[in-house]
Design goal:
- The complex is a heterodimer of chains A (194) and B (151).
- Helix content of chain A is 70%, strand content 1%.
- In chain A, helix 2 crosses helix 4.
- With 194 residues, chain A is mainly α.
- With 151 residues, chain B is an all-alpha fold.
- The longest helix of chain B is centred in the middle third of the chain and has 25 residues.
- Chains A and B meet through helix 2, helix 3, strand 1, helix 5 and helix 6 of A and helix 1, helix 3, strand 1 and helix 4 of B.
- Strand 1 of chain A pairs antiparallel with strand 1 of chain B.
- The structure holds zinc ion (ZN).
- Zinc ion binds next to helix 3 of chain B.
């Protein structure tokens, strides 16, 4: 199992176990964007993402007293988040996939740091739409793994830890997810020529 | 037809290979048009992800989480500690008792409409519950209603 020892996290966890209420707040503030973003990409809309992300932190709050200090806090949080999102997606009434952004959602920013030209911006918006479309069509398990790899930038080992699967499964799922994404995006571009 | 080594393209791109494996794959890809093409495609896909917007947690998110965590703590207090289904069970029993009371009142006062109306009013009056001591069925009912209203 991957262990990324993070002194900040260890200190937060120890303080939490000693009953310091500000420790949990520090954990939430540190990881809220990462967890929310994962939920937002997994569930496709702001409302469900907020619900799921809140649930993740409440589950963590209840389970933290039993958290093993040698484990990595962030892959542990990702694991809770991935499972929570998979649970949400299993609900038969789940219809809100990949709807519009909700009001009050935080700043949405492009990951490219330089200011893009209008043409480039349009292209990247088209690409973004094609990718969102592609992600929405992937099975939840493939979606989770490609988000962790391509958007969150986790290593295979961290992904294996986060999703509680073997390295072999990580490899084969990432390859399959990319293949399916390519197919869906190709189709999307054919249907939505620039 | 695809190359038997095409499954190495993804781990190569992700730098998840050992040094020897990497060198061997690069040598292979130079002579294999399928793997070379697949590598190009996956590189393009990878760079497409740089255009994906990442999201920040909405304004007030941490406050809402902390408030809910505080609620969890409050529930550890003796009265609230009762699981939800127990509270529902109490409410269900209460409902049956009230209904039976109304039916019984109805039967007893059959033919005396004026009296029945008074009984009905008394049965449904919330004054009964307000007088209930905390922790009683009435208290449970009121708390349940309050919890419902908060939603
Ligand atoms: Zn090849």
């Amino acid at each position: 199992m991957m262990t990324v020892r993070n002194d900040d996290d260890i200190s937060h966890i120890n303080r939490f176990k000693e009953g310091d209420p500000s420790a949990f707040e520090a954990i939430v503030l540190k990881y809220q964007d990462k967890i929310y973003s994962l939920c937002r990409h997994m569930l496709g809309n702001a409302h469900d993402a907020e619900d799921a992300a809140q649930e993740v932190f409440l589950k963590a709050y209840q389970a933290l007293p039993r958290f093993q200090p040698d484990a990595s806090l962030y892959t542990w949080l990702y694991r809770i988040a991935a499972n929570t999102c998979l649970d949400h997606l299993r609900k038969p009434v789940f219809e809100s996939l990949f709807g519009p952004s909700g009001e009050g959602e935080g700043l949405v920013h492009d990951r490219a740091s330089e200011a893009p030209s209008p043409e480039r911006l349009y292209q990247s918006k088209q690409t973004d739409r094609a990718l969102q479309e592609g992600l929405g069509k992937l099975s939840p398990k493939l979606r989770a793994i490609i988000i962790l790899k391509e958007i969150e930038g986790l290593s295979y080992e961290e992904i294996a830890d986060s999703l509680a699967i073997s390295m072999g499964t990580v490899k084969s799922r990432i390859a399959r997810a990319r293949e399916e994404l390519q197919k869906v995006m190709k189709k999307f571009r054919e249907q939505n020529p620039q | 037809m695809s190359c038997s080594k095409s499954n190495l393209v993804s781990p190569y791109l992700d730098k998840e290979m050992g040094a020897d494996e990497t060198i061997a794959f690069e040598a292979h890809a130079r002579g294999c048009s399928r793997c070379a093409q697949k590598l190009e495609e996956l590189r393009a896909l990878h760079s497409a992800f740089s255009a994906v917007q990442s999201h920040q947690a909405p304004y007030g998110f941490s406050t809402r989480v902390l408030a809910r965590a505080a609620e969890l703590e409050k529930k550890k207090a003796p009265w609230y500690f009762a699981p939800l289904f127990v509270r529902f069970a109490e409410a269900a029993v209460l409902l049956v008792v009230v209904t039976l009371g109304i039916l019984a009142g109805n039967a007893m006062t059959n033919g005396v409409p004026g009296r029945m109306a008074v009984n009905m009013t008394a049965s449904l009056s919330l004054d009964l519950f307000e007088a209930a001591p905390p922790g009683s069925l009435g208290g449970a009912y009121l708390a349940l209603m309050e919890a419902g209203n908060e939603k």
